[in-house]
């Protein structure tokens, strides 16, 4: 039997050590349990997000003694390569955005059990999550104006560095703080008083740079989540910096209305919706369409 001090030492190693090796799930996602460690430095507190790329875990950083968000990327080759691209972009952005006022800040990255893990500062909810929890109530126009200013400043910053985000959407824009206040919403038609949320701070940061493209490259492939996809992308004309600006416009309309501007999953319907809102597509674009792929 171990002496008391020896058993305490072994217990301490177990608490700070890595869990027993276990395989990934069928899609290459890391399998974990709450309270376990990612290396001896990060203790898993809870899962805060999931996507095609992998999972986002809220972890306690024993070294800096703060909560951080750790993006644990799927172990497949495709997503590992995208994650390493994201690390490169984040480090480049961080080099020139020293105050971290525009884009999420990377704290660290590691390759753990064949998973690229990117450690970020902890931020608040996404604009989409805030809308959803607010019963899709539109944001006040003054708030949308301020969010739009920050978003455009971030996009201009990236474009000045010859980077195109390519996947701007409400899910990829996070409030810096989770704090909010509740105010009565007298426009509600439900019985009783309905309260809506307003963020205490309008500060936001852009996240998810795994699809970022370099402006000097030739781009023909499909980018952007459907509702925020620019017409030149749909038409196969090639795309560049303007595709980010199109996405920003779609986002701002959504924040003002509470719902996506172009709710479709089909190309022809999407283009028809664009024409209904903005008028006919420019002839110079249509003349460049070499073949119709619908």
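Sequence proposed for the structure above (294 residues):
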């Amino acid at each position: 039997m171990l002496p008391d001090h020896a058993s305490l030492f072994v217990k301490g190693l177990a608490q700070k050590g890595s869990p027993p090796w276990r395989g990934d799930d069928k899609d290459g996602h890391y399998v974990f349990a709450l309270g376990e460690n990612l290396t001896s430095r990060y203790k898993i507190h809870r899962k805060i997000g999931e996507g095609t790329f992998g999972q986002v875990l809220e972890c306690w950083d024993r070294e800096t003694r703060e909560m951080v968000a750790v993006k644990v990327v799927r172990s497949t080759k495709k997503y590992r390569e995208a994650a390493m691209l994201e690390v490169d972009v984040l480090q480049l952005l961080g080099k020139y955005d020293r105050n971290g006022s525009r884009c999420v800040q990377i704290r660290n990255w590691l390759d753990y059990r064949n998973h690229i893990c990117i450690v970020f500062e902890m931020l608040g909810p996404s604009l989409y999550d805030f809308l959803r929890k607010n019963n899709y109530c539109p944001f006040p126009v003054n708030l949308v104006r301020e969010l739009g200013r920050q978003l455009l400043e971030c996009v201009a910053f990236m474009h000045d560095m010859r980077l195109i985000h390519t996947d701007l959407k409400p899910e990829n824009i996070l409030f810096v703080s989770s704090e909010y206040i509740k105010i009565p919403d007298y426009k509600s038609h439900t019985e009783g008083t309905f309260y809506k949320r307003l963020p205490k701070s309008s500060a936001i940061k852009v996240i998810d740079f795994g699809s970022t493209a370099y402006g000097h490259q030739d781009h023909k492939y499909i980018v952007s989540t459907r509702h925020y996809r620019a017409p030149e992308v749909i038409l196969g004309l090639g795309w560049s910096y303007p595709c980010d600006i199109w996405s920003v416009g779609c986002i701002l309309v959504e924040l003002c209305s509470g719902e996506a501007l172009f709710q479709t999953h089909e190309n022809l319907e999407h283009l028809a919706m664009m024409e209904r809102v903005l008028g006919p597509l420019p002839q110079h674009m249509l003349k460049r369409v070499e073949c119709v792929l619908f």
